[in-house]
Amino acid sequence: MTSHTPDGDASSPFSRSAETLPPLKTGTSTTVDAEPRNAFDRFFEITRRGSTFGREIRGGIVTFVTMAYIVILNPLILGGTKDVVGHALHAAQIGAATGLTAGVMTILFGVIARLPFALAAGLGINSFLAVSVVGQVTWQEAMGLVVINGVLIVLFGATGIRTAIFHAVPQPLKAAITVGIGLFIAFIGFVDSGFVNRTQGGPPVQLGEGGSITSVPTLIFLLGVVVIGILVARKVPGGILIGIVATTVVALIAQAVLHLGPSFKDPNGWHMTIPQLPTSWVTIPDFGLVGQFDLFGAFGRIGALSATMLVFTLVFSNFFDAMGTMTGLAKNAGLAYKDGTFPRLRSAFVVEGFGAVAGGVTSTSSNTVYVDSASGIGEGARTGLASLVVGALFLLSMFVTPLTLVVPIEVGSAALVVVGAMMMAQIREIKFDKFAVALPAFLTIVTMPLTYSIANGIGVGFISWALINALSGRARKVHWLMWVVALGFALYFVRGPVEQLLGH
Hints:
Layout: H1 39-44, H2 53-67, H3 69-78, H4 91-112, E1 119-121, H5 123-133, H6 139-159, H7 161-168, H8 171-193, E2 196-198, E3 205-207, H9 216-233, H10 239-258, H11 297-302, H12 304-332, H13 345-361, E4 367-369, H14 373-379, H15 384-397, H16 409-423, H17 435-451, H18 454-471, H19 480-493, H20 495-501
Antiparallel strand pairs: 1-4, 2-3
Region (Disordered): 1-32
Keywords: Membrane, Transmembrane, Transmembrane helix, Transport
Membrane topology: Multi-pass membrane protein
């Protein structure tokens, strides 16, 4: 097998041009030394990655079904908040722009990076904008900050800085990131399905409502976990997709009989979308938000220091959340090299950065790689062809938005839990008998689900790895870039007091 660099080039001083990387490490798929069937197969490396055309199509459909909720949720988050001058974004316009941006960026990612990852508006960043940013600036100015954040990430990716930081991360931490993401997406599934809920005055979370499962939607979620789990365990081709479709049919029947409402009105109701066949199948998208951003307006409104702090927060969340997600997805797909890198690494980082730029330009918030892509990978997706399928479906969703309401979040959550279990397998790569490795890895893993943030888990892992190894006589094991990033995360974690000192 020929030698590899992450992107096949050695132009950057940060790249390891002289190093020959080992063969692709097998995970849930196998690298096959076989002649491609045609130019299309050769371009996407379908046969070489042990996949088939059918698996890629199925995987793309499953990924879209799992993350289609963003077309509904993003308008709810961004459209439900007025900015500093009392202006609110129109929900229908957000929905159309969300599908447009996710579709275009996912297709570009599939063609350029050729990996089975899908992009859409990041939930962490859109919530940060709605909760913490637009109380200080207008929506146009907030999206201008998102564009600046994206430009910086593109520069980090293009110059090799992002790749250099990736190489500086020890392998046990990379494995811990994968495991943490598995727990994180499983926890997302538990929460979104109502299987886990917050409590008042007691433990932070509880099982169902009052410690028991009483709602039909949550029971349908459990049915989905069992059905999908059985199909995957029996290695049925298309098991995840078959399980999603079958459980959705059950949800449609249950809704037709019981006429349940949304959970905010009925505790026993559906938690995001009510499964029902739409009365209107086609809508005309409104792209009125495209281009509605003010690049430097926030600097004039709140001052350069405060605006810079907001950009800093966006960059750290975007930069490391996406890096951790791509690391975990590549390992789960069996596409990672032994050092944790993966094919076309730099291309992936650059395109993902442009997703942030595109999200600001279209007022949908930064678009980033979605951990939900793991559902399609679990279905067998291994190449950028699956991303093309996801992107095409996102573009189609602009016109058939009502169809995204058919699959309830409880069914998508079941797929996330199953895939989270698959990703836990990477824990075997962590040597827990060495405590200088075990504690940072453990903190990385548990912080992600407990704080609901991949970036937080990575930050805690970086800081604890650097401090514990340096102060236990292993300072040489800590790359200097780890210290730089750890310091940056330390500032990120205390950004609240810093902003207070700045008077904002």
